[in-house]
Write a structure and sequence with these properties.
The protein is mostly helical. It has one domain (18-83). Helix content is 53%, strand content 0%. The longest helix is centred in the middle third of the chain and has 24 residues, at 31-54.
């Protein structure tokens, strides 16, 4: 999956809002760590958003199969019986 721990660091140039940068420095913020953390969170969010979109047809096909045939091995379930077997009507 997406593991960023222990990855090497790479120097880069960023253009940041001068006022935000000034206040961040006044607050003693570690800019590299902050940007790295926030960027990693955004990369993960977008990765999983894309993954969900790319796999939408598979989700739809699975849901259709459950509608048509029910949940596999539902008759052996000992929990969630009141939820039915997934079949319609």
């Amino acid at each position: 999956m997406l593991q960023f721990d222990n990855a090497p660091k790479k120097a880069t140039n960023l253009s940041l809002n001068a006022k935000v940068l000034e206040i961040a420095r006044e607050l003693g913020m570690n800019l590299s760590q902050t940007v790295d953390t926030l960027l990693a969170e955004e990369v993960k969010r977008r990765y999983w958003e894309k993954w969900r979109e790319d796999n939408k047809p598979a989700f739809a096909a699975y849901n259709e199969r459950v509608k048509r045939y029910g949940i596999a091995l539902a008759k052996y379930r000992t929990w969630g019986k009141r939820l039915g077997d997934g079949r319609e009507g």
